[in-house]
Amino acid sequence: MSILRFDNVVKSYEKTIAVDHVTFEIPKGKIFGMLGPNGAGKTSLIRIITTITRADSGTIWLDGEKLNSHHPAQIGYMPEERGLYKKMKVGEQLTYLARLKGLSAADTKKELKYWFERFEILSWWNKKIEELSKGMQQKVQFIATVLHKPKLLILDEPFSGLDPINTNLIKDEIRKLNQAGTSIIFSTHQMEQVEEMCEYIVLINKGKNVLNGKVNDIRQEFKENLFKIEYTGELPAGLDDADAANAAFDVTTRTEGHLIMKVNEGGDSNELLRFLIQKGVHIQSFNEVLPSINDIFIRQVAASN
To answer: Which parts of the chain sit beneath pLDDT 70?
Structure first.
């Protein structure tokens, strides 16, 4: 079951095609990474999801229904460019935004009490937004995004301006919301955060979907059969020569205490391990080297360009 499905979606601005026949699904109840270089079309897709703009053609489904004007009440969107009124006080602003999202006065009071206590910011109620640091404003923006308990949460660079402690705080809250059933679209240029937070991703470039799927499956798909070996002591004399004579393996990197070896077509990891043991290598660890999402991102964007 998908929370969001794009079917052949197109969006153009004058002569520029921002979204070019995009089709993919976002699984329900998952954290989903939307990746792409600047100008790839991510923001255009988000604007379509939130009904800020409409697609020129194609169909978008939200939780089994065609996207319509009632759906924004079920969506929480935190844009990269924060949208807070700097002259308003924190409490007044969040109350106003909660009522805009359809919360009753009683529910607004209940939710704000919960989040102010959770973030330990009760003293901020009467502070103006402009009096807060960027990181403090980020917390307020996050509360504004989630307090109406949306079924779909869209976070665009949610950790921008946060120190490591508050980054971990927001990460924990994102995970808790996800565990409670909220589906989350996570848009960022920080690839290490994608690997840490996301189970599924889509890569958009020049308006096209060039890659999508489960993170672990994608990393397996792009692996190059490389293995990292940590060893103690000295390598046996002639290991490279012996390896050169064995077409199944190549030494690609050799530093003190570490080897990276490639298993060529026709070989396998068990055969490599036996080969090293037979050669007398004192192995401490033996691990497959999978490409990072950052490596895959760079490779795929370069290929599609």
So the answer is: 237-247
